[in-house]
Amino acid sequence: MIELDNVGYNYGGGELLTNVSAQLAPGSFHFLTGPSGAGKTTLLKLCYGALSPTSGRVRAFNMDVKGLDRDQMAMLRRRVGVVHQDCRFLDHLPVVENIALPLTVSGKDLAQEQANLRDLMDWVGLSERADAKPPELSGGERQRAALARAVILSPEVVIADEPTGNVDWEMSQRLLQLLVELNRMGKTILVATHDLALIRAAKNQVQTRVLRISDKRLQLAGADL
Amino acid sequence: MSGRIRQLIVGDAQADRVVPPSGFTAHLTLFVAAAMAFLAVFALALSLASGRLADRWADELARAATLRINAPADQRAAQTQAALTVLAQTPGVASARALTAEEQAALLAPWFGAELPLDSLPVPQLIEVLETETGYDAEGLRLRLQAEVPGAVLDDHSRWRKPLVDAARSLRRLGLFSILLIGGAMAGMITLAANAALAANAQVIEVLRLVGAQDDYIAHAFVRRFTLRALAGCSVGVALGMIGVWLMPAASEEGGFLTGLGFVSWGWLMPLAIPLLGALVAFVATSRAAKKRLGDLT
Questions:
Q1: For chain B, how big is the Rg over CA atoms in Å?
Q2: Domain annotation covers residue B61
Q3: What residues make up the domain containing B119?
Q4: What is the ipTM of this complex?
Q5: Could you tell me which chain A residue has the CA closest to the CA of B16?
Q6: pLDDT at A225
Q7: Chain A within 8 Å of B217 (Cβ-Cβ)?
Q8: How many CB pairs under 8 A join A and B?
Q9: What CA–CA distance (Å, rounded) separates B20 from B204?
Q10: Which domains does chain A have, with CATH numbers?
């Protein structure tokens, strides 16, 4: 589904990642961990085409990401839902419209999607906050709204960058539960996190693989997690 | 293309909300469009009036000449008659007639008043000459008049007609050139405003791309907004400009050129095209700006 083949990435001369190879099989659940600044976010961006590798190749859905034009890239983004650490909403729109944004930009008729939208708002527990503006939301609400937006087009892959970074334990468990449910629906999940407790909690519910970035390379984490 | 225009006019309420309203660029676009359209109305009025004037002067003067009999009072009638005879025999002269005393007084009235005692003044007799399609040989006629009517001076108007007509036509070209300049200036200002809006909304564009928006969708959101603003601004400017032109004094003999600076009959419909042209200019300018900006953003 997404495949990294000897991928390397340089930030202005400094090498951040080197010879990274990995494969996200359909329906798999991967965690990506490592110290701050190790390149977790960069690796996620390489997976959904926000960055191009300086060496090696990234393939998504059997397409070389580097060779995609802008329109093809837009289509790729509709197949890969992304939850950013800082969520990135349009602050002038209410939460419900932010969540519906992928529908809007892909030309779907919102009137026909109202039921799905309502179900999704219920699923992430934001029905009561539908008309609030993003700056009025708490950290946990923002993450849940971002997750709802990421999955509204029913993408095959969901990528989340530190989704529990700014929330308490209870909320992180709630978000984890949502990600596990998505995985059980057949979605491929890739979560970057430094929260080892979250990884342990996930392992109790679903089969996961944990990848660790260490010394610019990607390794399969051992049983210590 | 027709699909794009339809999409532009009909729009998508949801898509329109995606780009936040931006006060500065909205006001700038509206103001620039209104001001430029206002100026364009006057440039158009100037151009049309100059065109009318050039045509009228050319028509009225092209086939007319004046023969002036500068003779002592006791010979004036005889020389006038001799001149009329010569003119009647000249090929290319359609008609010739001596102006009456009342007509000559009317010509002098603007300078000397209506109560001019023409009889007591040494005013030359004027003969109006109208030529045929083929025209006459002015030099030949002058030579013959010189021999037979010593007091006759032929003025075929060409000496002063051509510069006047040229001036009026230049004025018309100047008016049209001004409209082009106004369109260009408007395109420049709207491009600046669109670039400012695109730069101010870089994060919005990033979010839209993140959720799978294609560049056409993003560009359309900006292009539609700027095109409609330009259309609205131009409509206001044209309405004000037309009121201004309508309030100008009507054309009159006394006022001359300045009072004829308005629209005549179907000419009143021409300014109505300005908002559409303004919207087209804004559409092209914003499309180009958006395409370039989105291409630059990685």
A1: 31
A2: no
A3: 71-150
A4: 0.86
A5: A104
A6: 52
A7: yes
A8: 57
A9: 8
A10: 2-90+156-220 (3.40.50.300)
